[in-house]
Design a protein that fits this description.
The protein has 245 residues and is an alpha/beta fold. 40% of the residues lie in helices and 18% in strands. The chain starts with 13 loop residues before the first strand and ends with a strand. This is N-acetylglucosaminyl deacetylase, LmbE family.
């Protein structure tokens, strides 16, 4: 596997994770997030939707969004994250709009992260489930918000004029679920917290037989570790790192 031409920063002060749905960050990146918070990095989540189109039972739709917000808040706590932003877009219907770019750029300027984590805008043809349309749309909108919107003081001038949000340059973007992943994070020591975070999403995982989720996700992480040359028995999450500064 080809390594990034420029390695990621060894430590950053602040990370913003921008994902489409509650649980997206936990399936793909919660082990990595835990390594960052353990190292003293502040991590903030931004969820574009409330996940109100998810679930596997007859829970009334008007209850699903609040339930999933609560589940994601509980999941975040397992990996050291306490600040969450919610944009309130409709689950399953996220489109590439200027409003979405502006709303993500607003959060970037509020949080002022050194690194942004989001989903890849590229489709994974060998694992199509990772390429939900909302995932790809949010990944592309986030990249557009990182460059040029958040750093350009003349983009969405109302953010500065009306809200006092100064332009901000993000140095790195980490893309999860990417067909171009070239960097793996060993998450063996934080995997239990990742599983605890996943278990918080009761509306999404409670229908599975006990142990099935752990077996599936654990196998996925073991394969990722092997693909990226980690020793046998290790667990990893993989990303495509893009340097933007």
């Amino acid at each position: 596997m080809t390594a990034p031409a420029q390695p990621p920063a060894e430590h950053v002060d602040r990370v913003l994770c921008v994902l489409a749905h509650p649980d997206d960050v936990d399936f793909g990146s919660a082990g990595t997030v835990a390594t960052w918070t353990d190292a003293g990095t502040e991590v903030v989540y931004c969820l574009v939707t409330d996940g109100d189109a998810g679930g596997f039972d007859d829970t009334p739709r008007e209850q699903m969004g609040p339930l999933r917000r609560a589940e994601q808040t509980a999941a975040a706590a397992h990996v050291g994250v306490t600040q969450l932003h919610w944009l309130g877009y409709p689950d399953g219907r996220v489109e590439q709009t200027l409003d979405l770019r502006r709303d993500i750029a607003r959060v970037i300027r509020q949080v002022r992260p050194d690194r942004v984590l989001t989903t890849s805008p590229e489709r994974m043809w060998d694992r199509v489930g990772a390429s939900h349309p909302d995932h790809m749309t949010v990944g592309e909108a986030t990249l557009r918000a990182v460059y040029p919107d958040a750093r350009n003081p003349f983009a969405f001038p109302e953010l500065l004029a009306d809200e006092g949000l100064e332009a901000w340059t993000v140095s790195e973007v980490w893309l999860s679920a990417s067909p171009r992943a070239q960097h793996a994070v060993d998450v063996t020591d934080t995997a239990e917290r990742k599983f605890a975070a996943l278990g918080s999403h009761v509306t999404q995982v409670a229908h599975q037989p006990e142990g099935q989720l752990r077996e599936f996700v654990g196998g996925w992480m073991r394969q990722t570790a092997r693909t990226h040359g980690l020793p046998d028995g290790r667990l990893a999450e993989a990303f495509h790192i893009v340097h933007t500064a």
